[in-house]
Write a structure and sequence with these properties.
By secondary structure, the protein is α+β, with helices and mostly antiparallel strands. It has helices at residues 42-46, 55-64, 86-102, and strands spanning 7-15, 18-25, 36-41, 68-72, 108-111. α2 (55-64) crosses α3 (86-102).
């Protein structure tokens, strides 16, 4: 079962030691007024383990350690009981996986 077919992520800004990214689900259009926003501490990228067998599990662990936060939910969020937009965590997972593969943080990212 796929929850989404397209995820688009775009760098927003750096605030202190945090990187903020816009994310959109099932749309290639980025609307800065309504797109979700996810925040990731830069240290997350610097401290990645050598092996990450399951990215979503790893991202959820980082979320519980307050190293990843969903600042604003997407336009049509997938909300769980603790009020997290799952799509924001999925966006963070894509960014971490990209960094793990290419050793750089992308300015923008699209997964279809």
């Amino acid at each position: 079962m796929n929850l989404f077919s397209i995820i688009k992520i775009q760098f927003k800004e750096q605030v202190d030691q945090k990187l903020l990214f816009y994310y959109e689900i099932d749309s290639l259009k980025m609307n800065e007024d309504t797109s979700g926003i996810v925040e990731i501490y830069i240290q997350v990228f610097e401290d990645l383990p050598d092996d990450i067998p399951e990215y979503m599990h790893y991202v959820i662990q980082l979320f519980h350690k307050d190293q990843i936060q969903v600042i604003r939910a997407s336009d049509e969020p997938l909300i769980f009981s603790d009020c997290i937009d799952f799509f924001g965590l999925a966006a963070a997972g894509h960014l971490i996986k990209y960094y793990r593969q290419y050793n750089e943080i992308p300015e923008s990212y699209i997964s279809v």
